[in-house]
Amino acid sequence: MDESGRRRQQRRNHPSSSSSSTSSSTGTPRFRSQKFSLNPDKTTQSSNFGPFSMPYHLFVPEHEGEMRQTLASYILVSLSSCLALTISLKYVQASDVRPLSVLEDTLNYLLYLLDSSEHPFEVVHDFIFDRTRSIRQDLSMQNIVNDRAIHMYEKMVKFHVVSRHRLRNCGSSSISSLQYLNMEQLTKTLASLYILYEANHRSISIYENEAEFRSLYVLLHLDSKSQQAESKSFWFCRVPSLIMKSKEMHFTGQVLRFYRMGNYRSFLCTVSDEPFVNEVRTLAVSYINNCCYKLHPYPLEQLSKLLMMKESDVESFCHACGLETVTDDGGTKSLPTKQTTFSIPKGSFQSYSLLALQQ
């Protein structure tokens, strides 16, 4: 018998030793059965989630953790469509679903990472974004609609609101897509939160933070492009009377009136949310350009007071809108009106500060 024949015979006689050597050589990880636990002192199987090292039991069931370890790629990309590999509900077992206490602790830990300074915010946001969405899926799959779930949804809404503000200051090339996805998930999370509110309403009371989160919907849909007036009126009709009488909704209604009536000075004194501030400034410049007398250019000094901007910023803002400015013999800058070149920039404006906030 030649050498290769003897090796085959040895493998048939001692299959266990062969498999063990193969396992050790390939480095396939081994897993022990473990219950969901959040004791940080307890030794558990951990893995790298992007830039963070996290225990698996906080995020996925045991066998899914094994699957993620052994699969070469967890996401499969098809030429026709991009489909995320998920576990079919048909095969979900009780041990696959994280209980409410685990979901609560997981969310608290994720939100703790929100203030991390070790990584760029877009990296931290992307990490938390995926896992908060997974938490909502677990809550929905278990049909958890109690007060604890409401409190968790409120925290996740705040995460998306904070991200909406902080992502604007990031310089990554993928920020636009991150902002779009964040706004999409903010809208969905708010809608789910409102459903939970309605499912748990008491006869004569509302939740402590409900007025705040109801008013947030209006502030996110001030412009007519994101929400038609008829549907917004219908939305107001469904808001409980106790919320309509709250100080939060009173403030929101005031902001909405300033915006719709063109009271730009009052609006800018009330709201500091950059996208709406720039939109209101654009409308103000458009109206001044179209309505003022052509023979009397509008002084930039006066326009800067109206828009609550530095005079140099007003000049830059007008140029971004396709308008020219002029300087007279005395050095006074002004905006000639009736210009036909006005246009709303396709991209975003540069960041302009509010003078009232600085003062």
Q: How are the secondary structure elements laid out?
A:
Blueprint: H1 3-13, H2 15-26, E1 46-49, E2 52-55, H3 62-70, E3 75-77, E4 82-84, H4 100-112, H5 121-141, H6 147-166, H7 175-199, H8 210-220, H9 229-237, H10 241-244, H11 247-261, H12 264-270, H13 274-291, E5 298-299, H14 300-307, H15 311-320, E6 326-327, E7 333-335, H16 355-358
Antiparallel strand pairs: 1-2, 3-4, 5-7, 6-7
Can you offer a commentary on this structure?
This protein is mainly alpha-helical and 359 residues long. It is built from 16 helices and seven strands. It has helices spanning 3-13, 15-26, 62-70, 100-112, 121-141, 147-166, 175-199, 210-220, 229-237, 241-244, 247-261, 264-270, 274-291, 300-307, 311-320, 355-358, and strands at 46-49, 52-55, 75-77, 82-84, 298-299, 326-327, 333-335. A three-stranded antiparallel β-sheet has the order 5-7-6. A hairpin with a 5-residue loop joins strand 6 and strand 7 (333-335). Helix 8 (210-220) runs parallel beside helix 11. The radius of gyration is 29 Å and the shape is elongated. 19% of the residues are buried.
